[in-house]
Design a protein that fits this description.
Blueprint lengths: L38 H12 L2 E6 L2 E6 L2 H7 L5 E4 L8 H4 L11 H10 L9 H19 L5 E3 H18 L13 H16 L4 H6 L2 H28 L7 H7 L11 H32 L1 H14 L14 H13 L5 E6 L3 E3 L3 E3 L4 E5 H4 L19 H6 L18 H18 E5 L7 E4 L1 E4 L3 E6 L2
Parallel strand pairs: 2-8
Antiparallel strand pairs: 1-2, 3-5, 4-12, 5-8, 6-7, 9-12, 10-11
């Protein structure tokens, strides 16, 4: 149980003793153990070595890693702990500023935007997006039609379909992903932004100003470019007149916060759009790619999913009301998110001095990182946590599970607002692919995971064969 500071004894962070890597150096700390290109997987490996709570000290900065469901019961309590941006999410503010994902708790635009946008992300609201989502995945299916037997870049193509979905449903923008032979300039800039932010988050400003000065200059140019492009989209909608498109941009331009009566200004609308582009499509694309990998190497699971799809999908198109009936496909999505949550962790900070778990003192404002990659492989999942098994998410097994054991969308008031949107989109895309294609894996491929703030399979390629 968490306790606030006693009146007689001061809680001191210096009294906190945690497992940590061996051979800690004076001043430098555990810098020898620092990884910057795979920091989330590095955090998971540390948890497997040092336990459910451990720390690393980098140049005097203490980083606490937690993957204990019991401790998370306290840490996820919004009255005791709050969202903390941490790195590299903090550095993503260079582009998304006070967007929903990167806003500080104290920034008023977060609550305003959340109140305005929340109705657009309910399960019922998905009906207005369904036809657009269908059109996007239809383009993917046709894009593969003439590539029977060819190796296909799966993360690249799931990125395209997710980008089209968020572009068209979010702000009426068509990236022409399946028609272009080159990469869209906005897409290229956003990828460089995410890559730079992920790498530089653990760097030193002096290093960025010298060794990586060209990359830093490119990053600034990319941020200015995407800002101009998104501002142009907003300005065009304002000239046309908002209110008739039924997308997120229309709502942001016309709806008001029911509590204050205030609307979002154009600058914050830009930040929300960039948030959707940076966080919204990359996460969904990654889940689709991981799921397709596991479906390709587990043909019995793919076949079971196809049987369900055949029972539910009875007409020419997969109807809106049929998507929630694809419960096994949904379990495939959940199991993919368990093994590889594409947002692989989150930060929380103490609202008050507290004794975590009754034994670990944290002063007000100190923070921890929740290692989802290890939490989702915790011993409470059973003896084979690395095995892909969608039936872990059967209703009776979910009810029997520790409530803090699965957190791919975060927690509390700052949990992912787009959860229902993502589930509908991903289930629809996977069902349509399985309905139309068989998946053939590369027998020499071993799953590798690339980190650019979000996670995705690295160099994953499959062959597809059209089903009759």
């Amino acid at each position: 149980m968490t306790t606030t500071t006693p009146t007689t004894d001061r809680i001191r962070a210096s009294d906190r003793v945690l497992p940590h890597p061996p051979y800690r150096l004076p001043i430098l700390g555990d810098v020898w153990d620092l990884h910057v290109t795979d920091s989330s997987q590095w955090g998971m490996r540390g948890a497997q070595k040092y336990g459910d709570i451990y720390e690393r000290n980098i140049f005097g900065a203490r980083v606490t890693y937690v993957s204990s469901p019991e401790l998370m019961g306290e840490i996820n309590d919004d009255e005791k702990w709050a969202k903390f941006l941490g790195v590299p999410i903090r550095d993503l503010r260079s582009v998304a500023r006070d967007g929903l994902f990167t806003a500080h708790n104290s920034e008023p635009n977060w609550a305003k935007a959340h109140a305005i946008l929340a109705p657009s992300f309910t399960a019922a609201a998905m009906k207005s997006y369904h036809t657009t989502m269908q059109a996007c995945v239809g383009e993917l299916i046709e894009h593969w039609a003439d590539r029977d037997g060819e190796w296909i870049d799966i993360p690249g193509d799931t990125n395209k379909v997710a980008l089209e979905v968020i572009g068209r449903t979010g702000f009426g923008y068509n990236f022409d992903s399946f028609a272009r032979t080159d990469e869209h300039p906005i897409v290229a800039a956003m990828l460089r932004i995410l890559t730079y932010v992920n790498r530089s988050a653990y760097s030193h400003p002096l290093v960025e100003h010298t060794v990586f000065r060209k990359e830093r200059a490119q990053h600034r140019a990319d941020v200015e470019f995407v800002n101009r492009e998104v501002d142009a989209v907003i300005a065009q909608r304002q000239r046309e007149g908002a209110g008739e498109h039924g997308d997120l941009l229309d709502r942001m331009l016309t709806a008001a916060d029911p509590e204050t009566g205030q609307q979002l200004d154009a600058q914050n609308i830009r930040h929300q759009i960039l948030t959707f582009l940076a966080a919204g499509h990359e996460t969904s694309a990654g889940v689709m790619a991981f799921a397709l990998h596991y479906l390709s190497v587990n043909p019995e699971i793919a076949e079971r999913a196809r049987q369900e799809i055949a029972e539910v999908w009875t007409g020419d198109e997969l109807e809106f009301g049929q998507v929630p009936k694809l419960r096994y496909v949904r379990r495939i999505v959940d199991e993919s998110l368990r093994l590889w949550p594409t947002a692989p962790g989150y930060f929380r900070k103490a609202r008050h001095d507290t004794m975590l778990g009754g034994k670990y003192p944290f002063e007000k404002g100190e923070w921890v990182f929740i290692v989802l990659l290890q939490l989702h492989r915790h011993r409470l999942w059973g003896d084979e946590p690395e095995r892909f098994d969608p039936d872990r998410f059967l209703p009776e097994r979910v009810r029997a599970r520790h409530p803090e054991l699965y957190r791919p969308f975060g927690v509390g008031m700052r949990a992912c607002i787009g959860r229902q949107f993502a589930y509908h989109e991903i289930v629809l895309v996977l069902a349509t692919i399985l309905h139309n294609y068989d998946l053939v894996p590369d027998p020499n491929y071993q799953l590798k995971v690339k980190e650019t703030i979000t996670l995705k399979p690295d160099q994953l390629r499959l062959k597809v064969s059209r089903r009759s």
